[in-house]
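User: Need the bound-state model for 5'-deoxyadenosine:
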Amino acid sequence: MVKQPNLENETQSLEYETVLRELKKELTPRGLKYHIESYGCQMNAHDSEKIAGLLTEMGFSAAENKEGADLLLFNTCCVREHAEKRVFGNIGALKKKKEANPGLMIGVCGCMMQQADVAPRLMRRFPFVNFVIGTNNLHELPLIMQRVLQGERPVGVSAQDKAPIVEGLPALRAPGVSASVNIMYGCDNYCSYCIVPYVRGRERSREKTAILDEVRELAQNGYSEITLLGQNVNSYCGGGAAFANLLRYVNDIDGIKRIRFMTSHPKDLSDELIEALGELPAVCCHLHLPVQSGSDAILTQMNRRYTRSHYLNLVEKLRAKKPELELTTDIIVGFPGETEQDFEDTLLLMKQVGFSAAFTFMYSPRTGTKAASLPGQIDEKTKKDRLLRLNALQEEQTRQTNQKYIGKVEEVLVEGSDNRRDTPMIYGRLSCFKMVYFPGNPDKIGQYLPVRILEAHANTLLGEMAT
Ligand code: 5AD
Ligand code: SF4
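Assistant: Bound-state model below.
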């Protein structure tokens, strides 16, 4: 049965249901296939699962690859210019394909389509695109597809800033044991470099009961590892205490063995949350806590609203509660005005904390953000040079944090198999998020197995089953 989303009024939801029914009747016998190309963060990856769920309800099925698709959908990201350029390049490359096969449907969705000037620019440059749709309008996809199938072109849905949360949209998750669940949408932080608040809109938290119902259903369907998603989960429903409470409820759900969450903002990481991290058995031994810079002057310019010493103090408190906790982070180099000394402060912070991994980025100016018009923009060469130095230090630290595990027996949740070597290997993550490869057969996928760690490589560990 089609699950009914909580659309705003009765007329809207009746229309949604009727359209879905009509589409399913029309499309199922045609055997149309879709392929989604997803860019960017985990939030986007989860949106793609929702799009796949909606398309399945409409009677589409997944193509094995993009060549076999009747509908190609690009779920875009605009956090950095690089991602945006790749999307434009990949869509442009479809021109010939569309000429050879005019029946091919091409759609573009995601954060880029929430930028006021981008959707019209994209339609002008690539008139062969059939439709565009913003992140906050995914629930309108059935109505859009109906118009596209009727031959209307191009179809666009305007992006909404204060979009309501639409519950009950079906999600087609990859089969397995690990699932992502949104707990909130949007962001109110306005870090000066970041486009997200402009494209994902104001912060909106989902109702606790809706989240818990979704997690319970996932647990009943065999998913035992849950990742709670939001741009700043620590401000869920107005504060860290509320998020800590949510963690307690999720921890108590039968069948949930591991809980992860991202992203946390250091300014909102409450004592209650640190307490919960230390106490709750299902909460994983890993925290992703983006620091962005180790210089107070740059943190102020970034509008991060914490200092270097506040961050280091948090790390101390976290490790006092949970000594084995692994920390990962995001860092931007080459923010406007960043001096060599500011950058060295970042290197020093990295050494002081000992992150087990870091996602590192060169600052990319985003039109409309405050930092894009700041004086002191840094040249590409300096940015690249700083990125290389930062990555070299992080690689060394990752290796060091990996070494600690040698000789230990740790629990791995098996995610997949790799048959490229002589011995068939399987792999999965430790609670602390480190990836472990070890000999085994794919029938173990989905199981929690004790593994003895034998070797530490640059980004992964190598082990053997300890049973
Ligand atoms: N330039 C470079 N990196 C950025 N990020 C966000 N905006 C920008 C930008 N304009 C990085 C931040 C954030 C991560 C998701 O992407 O480090 O935490
Ligand atoms: Fe962007 Fe800052 Fe919000 Fe993260 S917290 S999404 S970096 S504005």
